[in-house]
Design a protein that fits this description.
Layout: E1 5-8, H1 21-28, E2 36-40, H2 41-47, E3 51-53, H3 61-70, H4 74-82, E4 84-89, E5 95-98, E6 103-105, E7 118-120, H5 126-137, E8 142-150, E9 157-165, E10 171-172, E11 188-189, H6 191-203, E12 212-216, H7 235-240
Parallel strand pairs: 2-8
Antiparallel strand pairs: 1-12, 2-12, 3-7, 4-5, 5-6, 8-9, 10-11
The chain binds guanosine-5'-diphosphate and manganese (II) ion (2 copies).
One manganese (II) ion binds next to loops.
Length: 242
């Protein structure tokens, strides 16, 4: 038996508003208890009707000013501001805290895989989305909703978990001994992000059409619900705000 198996779910159609993702995925893949299903936030957002037309945004003076300074469409900047509860950086790109607590460039709004003059917001509450999909699958399947993001200090994109259900997000290694018997004091491993990134590797970023991946045989934590760094502990965030 391998330590872990990964399956790309093939045959997912182009997703539109009100598509029932859980039944589509269930019809394409035979889920078993203990599987971890990773779904690109893109298709969750599409199913939830998070498409918007740029023409429907009326930029404020603030959005116009930011847009001019970073050379972006003011309507797009307005969309980002609308999805944000706090702006951490305006220049050279918009880094914001989304309404559900995830920090990302452009509030995770995508312009790829959607069509001209259209944008796709992230799901409104990705944890609730993951929960609903898990319930609809009707098995003990952990669900992780992923989004590809840039990372500070590193070149290249990778995915993180923006929503999850039926899985603990952090594995706590504190108190366990290293190979020399020294007890670990601070290590929390971001398991849900690691799984999200592995899934992203199989999904691809362009026209692959493979937005869902299942891992089987993976031991994952069952408790813990944190990935977004609490504001008061986030030293980098404090320094960004100056
Ligand atoms: P994000 O990382 O969640 O922003 O999603 P991406 O736009 O990078 O897409 C991830 C994967 O999903 C890629 O393989 C895309 O080709 C695929 N994808 C996006 N939308 C659809 C869709 O509606 N149907 C299918 N089958 N694949 C899609
Ligand atoms: Mn995205
Ligand atoms: Mn992606």
């Amino acid at each position: 038996m391998p330590d872990m198996e990964g399956f790309v779910i093939r045959g997912v159609p182009v997703i539109g508003e009100r598509d029932d993702l859980a039944s589509i995925l269930r019809s394409l893949f035979d889920f078993k208890d203990g599987d971890v299903l990773c779904i690109a936030s893109t298709i969750v957002a599409k199913a939830e009707g998070m498409f918007r037309h740029l023409k429907d945004y009326r930029p404020t003076k603030n959005a116009e000013d930011i847009a001019a300074s970073i050379n972006r469409d003011p309507r797009f900047v307005q969309a980002v501001l609308d999805e944000s509860k706090e702006v951490l950086l305006e220049k050279p790109f918009l880094l914001v805290v989304t309404r559900f607590g995830h920090i990302g460039v452009n509030a995770g709004i995508d312009q790829s895989n959607v069509g001209p003059e259209m944008i796709l917001l992230l799901p409104k509450d990705p944890k609730a989305s993951a929960d609903a999909i898990r319930t609809a699958l009707g098995k003990d399947v952990a669900v992780i909703i992923t989004d590809t993001c840039g990372r500070p200090f590193r070149c290249g994109v990778a995915a993180v978990a923006v929503g999850w259900a039926g899985i603990g997000t952090l594995r706590d290694w504190r108190g366990e001994a290293d190979i020399h018997g020294k007890k670990l004091e601070i290590t929390l491993e971001a398991v849900a992000d690691e799984i999200a990134s592995a899934a992203n590797l199989l999904m691809g970023e362009a026209g692959d059409g493979t937005p869902a991946v299942v891992f089987r045989g993976l031991k994952y934590p069952r408790s813990g619900d944190h990935l977004f760094m609490p504001k008061e502990l986030d030293i980098i965030r404090r320094h960004l705000k100056g």
